[in-house]
């Protein structure tokens, strides 16, 4: 399947910097789909910069409700309306900083699908869970709780992001990544059927130009969710070219 390299810009940059970064990746790469996920206030201007480009735009979150009294929140329809085609959901920073549960993530993913957005649902164990030998069980449980019915059929995407690898420069071994991705594939096929063979499984956590090729060579790794390295256009493109 065609890989996806998604950049999570998190809460970084001014409008000018976001526009410049979007200009820097605008041409995309031959061998992979690219997606950039700017802060919500930069979604529309970045989408304008990327008009006519193969690079897609995604949001970093959305609310589960279609509208209502939710001060400070954005609905799936709102982010789609300003140019997003994808939305990252259940990132570990949202699970940790905003107390999002699997049920919350599932409700948001349902809202995203209803609005015509492709959800990228993040799962991943903490360091304590990995050390306790619980990584596969934790990820399997998060998948079961966070993905709505119809997820695979609608083209939903999963990102495996070990919490301890995010922004730390540390990564699991290639064997550990392959093991989790294989487990995720099995669990998705078990629930959604053969359709889930086509579900893109991204790896995220300290992906850099130097380690991307090794990770991308693994079975069931269909791309990456990139944080820090997606803030430098040349690095983001180099990662995408490593596929
Ligand atoms: C992320 O937060 O989604 C991420 C993968 O960050 P980094 O690449 O900086 O580890």
UniProtKB/TrEMBL annotation:
<keyword id="KW-0324">Glycolysis</keyword>
<dbReference type="InterPro" id="IPR022896">
    <property type="entry name" value="TrioseP_Isoase_bac/euk"/>
</dbReference>
<comment type="subunit">
    <text>Homodimer.</text>
</comment>
<comment type="pathway">
    <text>Carbohydrate biosynthesis; gluconeogenesis.</text>
</comment>
<protein>
    <recommendedName>
        <fullName>Triosephosphate isomerase</fullName>
        <ecNumber>5.3.1.1</ecNumber>
    </recommendedName>
</protein>
<comment type="similarity">
    <text>Belongs to the triosephosphate isomerase family.</text>
</comment>
<keyword id="KW-0312">Gluconeogenesis</keyword>
<feature type="binding site">
    <location>
        <position position="206"/>
    </location>
    <ligand>
        <name>substrate</name>
    </ligand>
</feature>
<dbReference type="InterPro" id="IPR035990">
    <property type="entry name" value="TIM_sf"/>
</dbReference>
<comment type="function">
    <text>Involved in the gluconeogenesis. Catalyzes stereospecifically the conversion of dihydroxyacetone phosphate (DHAP) to D-glyceraldehyde-3-phosphate (G3P).</text>
</comment>
<dbReference type="InterPro" id="IPR000652">
    <property type="entry name" value="Triosephosphate_isomerase"/>
</dbReference>
<feature type="binding site">
    <location>
        <position position="167"/>
    </location>
    <ligand>
        <name>substrate</name>
    </ligand>
</feature>
<feature type="active site" description="Proton acceptor">
    <location>
        <position position="161"/>
    </location>
</feature>
<feature type="binding site">
    <location>
        <begin position="8"/>
        <end position="10"/>
    </location>
    <ligand>
        <name>substrate</name>
    </ligand>
</feature>
<feature type="binding site">
    <location>
        <begin position="227"/>
        <end position="228"/>
    </location>
    <ligand>
        <name>substrate</name>
    </ligand>
</feature>
<feature type="active site" description="Electrophile">
    <location>
        <position position="91"/>
    </location>
</feature>
<dbReference type="Pfam" id="PF00121">
    <property type="entry name" value="TIM"/>
</dbReference>
<dbReference type="GO" id="GO:0004807">
    <property type="term" value="F:triose-phosphate isomerase activity"/>
</dbReference>
<keyword id="KW-0963">Cytoplasm</keyword>
<keyword id="KW-0413">Isomerase</keyword>
<comment type="pathway">
    <text>Carbohydrate degradation; glycolysis; D-glyceraldehyde 3-phosphate from glycerone phosphate: step 1/1.</text>
</comment>
<dbReference type="InterPro" id="IPR020861">
    <property type="entry name" value="Triosephosphate_isomerase_AS"/>
</dbReference>
<dbReference type="InterPro" id="IPR013785">
    <property type="entry name" value="Aldolase_TIM"/>
</dbReference>
């Amino acid at each position: 399947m065609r890989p996806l390299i998604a950049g999570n810009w998190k809460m970084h940059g001014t409008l000018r910097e976001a526009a410049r970064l979007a200009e820097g990746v605008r041409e995309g790469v031959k061998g992979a789909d690219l997606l950039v996920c700017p802060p919500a206030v930069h979604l529309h201007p970045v989408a304008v910069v990327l008009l006519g480009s193969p690079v897609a735009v995604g949001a970093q979150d959305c609310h589960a409700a279609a509208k209502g009294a939710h001060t400070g929140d954005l609905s799936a329809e709102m982010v789609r309306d300003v140019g997003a085609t994808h939305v990252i959901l259940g990132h570990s920073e949202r699970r940790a900083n905003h107390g999002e549960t699997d049920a919350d993530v599932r409700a948001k993913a349902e809202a995203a699908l209803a609005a015509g957005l492709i959800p990228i649902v993040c799962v991943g164990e903490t360091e304590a869970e990995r050390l306790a030998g619980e990584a596969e069980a934790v990820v399997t449980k998060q998948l079961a709780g966070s993905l709505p019915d119809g997820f695979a059929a609608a083209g939903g995407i999963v990102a495996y992001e070990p919490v301890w690898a995010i922004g730390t420069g540390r990564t699991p071994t290639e064997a550990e990544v392959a093991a989790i991705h294989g487990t995720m594939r099995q669990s998705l096929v078990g629930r959604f059927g053969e359709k889930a063979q086509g579900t893109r499984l991204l790896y995220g956590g300290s992906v850099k130009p130097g380690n991307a090729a090794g990770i991308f060579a693994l079975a069931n790794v269909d791309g990456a969710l990139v944080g820090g390295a997606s803030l430098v256009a040349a690095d983001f493109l180099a990662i995408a070219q490593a596929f």
